[in-house]
Fold this protein.
Amino acid sequence: MTSIFRWLLFVVLLLPLGGCGIYSFSGASIPPEARSLTIIQFENNAPIVVPVLAQVLSDRMRDKFLAETGLRLLEADGDLKFEGSITEYAVLPAAPGANETTTLSRLTIGVKVIYTSRINPKDDWEQTFRRFADYDATQDLQAVENQLIDDIVRQLIDDIFNKAFVNW
């Protein structure tokens, strides 16, 4: 009796996965016809240019998308294509303090992404994603910049991945 119950539970849990797409444990839903993706190197068009930012963003995006989709990476002509540019890199005060000082500063990064699907052109989209991280205003930006960039880039890539493959 217990083995029958387990088998039925297993079947019931797998039924939702029989829909119209490839699913992964990341929650990604990819068109079944999609076999490849292309991620064009992002351009850095922000007013303040951090030389490594475009490379870091593009490389980490490739790493995540390959690891979580099972698609293969092509230099050009992938079934799914991502391209875009870094449009914003700004440091502004985030929290005012006493005597007209700032206690927190905020690093904000904005990325414009263009997604193109050769399989389902109706799924194409263009969107700007923005994320930020706050840090103690008494710290020198150069001392915390790499960690802030890592955190913000991870969040941006999660947002892009979710928009493309989790349909949020």
About this structure: Confidence is low (pLDDT under 50) at residues 7-26. The chain has one domain: 35-166.
